[in-house]
Amino acid sequence: MAASAQELPPAQQQPAAEQPPSLALALVPQPQAQAQIKPTRVSLSYEEISKLFSLPIAEAASILGVCTSVLKRICRTHGIVRWPYRKVKSLSVLRLVREISFVPCYCSINVHLLHA
């Protein structure tokens, strides 16, 4: 029978580091409990948010330093149900079209009917 490492003379004993892995006890340091990072509350005013309505929500969120989900949540607290970028964009395009297409024209309107 094989003698254990403690029964062998000191010259024949193997240090613990040289023992085969099956015989050596592996002491693995346990990771210490990491402090959970609590999200900080972001408070943005309506004025800060409304300045960015002319941008897509992803771009506005990156400028404000938050993710889009957080920006949406903040908007809902201010009563903004949907990010108004497309509406603002369509209104500005509509305004531009009106300015370009507004050319004073002299139509054949019966002026005497207007003053009657």
Automatic annotation (TrEMBL):
GO terms for molecular function: DNA binding; DNA-binding transcription factor activity. It comes from the Eukaryota. InterPro entries: RKD-like, RWP-RK_dom. Residues 27-113 form the RWP-RK domain. Residues 1-20 are annotated as: Disordered. This is RWP-RK domain-containing protein. Keywords: Coiled coil, DNA-binding, Nucleus, Transcription, Transcription regulation. Putative transcription factor. The keyword Mitochondrion does not apply. Pfam families: RWP-RK.
